[in-house]
Design a protein that fits this description.
This protein has 6 helices and no strands. By secondary structure, it is mainly α. The radius of gyration is 26 Å and the shape is elongated.
């Protein structure tokens, strides 16, 4: 009786946790969109300087900064390089989260975490009840998964004991 109750609690806990994952990804995507917009604005400022002094060639602007004798100015070139690479990467990630279906987003999210954005999203995360079918499907999968883990933890010691008994009788 208690095992059945605990199993149901694990199922409910898994369902609740997995229901929140699509909602978390949605809030993560919103944060990523803000981050991408901020980077785009910074790049526009670099591009405006390149337009004015380097005929629009941002790479020429970056090289000029890099060749400067002042280390603070030369380090600005490295910042431009990092910002450009990061902007391309985040635009790609944002495109995935905005255009791909949830079944594609979840594994992508897990394999392409941006820890700074995850931390910020987690700090400001407000749980919610998603209304789409995919989210409910993930909730069901989470419930079953948590229930299987619980039942596996209960059944594993019994199976090991049973296996040891068989070996002692046959050995």
């Amino acid at each position: 009786m208690i095992k059945g109750l605990i199993d149901k609690i694990f199922f409910a806990l898994g369902a609740i946790v997995f229901l929140q994952l699509p909602h978390f990804i949605e809030q993560y995507t919103q944060r990523m969109g803000g981050y991408a917009a901020s980077q785009t604005e910074q790049i526009k400022e670099y591009q405006a300087i390149a337009d004015e002094h380097f005929a629009g060639d941002i790479e020429a602007y970056r090289l000029r900064l890099q060749q400067n004798a002042d280390p603070a100015v030369a380090e600005s070139a490295e910042q431009i390089t990092k910002r450009l690479k990061s902007a391309q990467s985040i635009q790609h990630d944002l495109q995935v989260f905005e255009q791909k279906p949830l079944w594609y987003q979840v594994p992508y999210f897990i394999t392409h975490l941006r820890t700074d954005l995850v931390k910020g999203t987690a700090q400001n995360f407000s749980p919610g009840l998603p209304i789409n079918l995919w989210a409910w499907g993930y909730g069901l999968v989470g419930g079953v998964l948590f229930s299987l883990v619980f039942n596996g933890c209960i059944a594993l010691p019994k199976a090991i004991k049973k296996n040891k008994r068989k070996k002692t009788f046959t050995g």
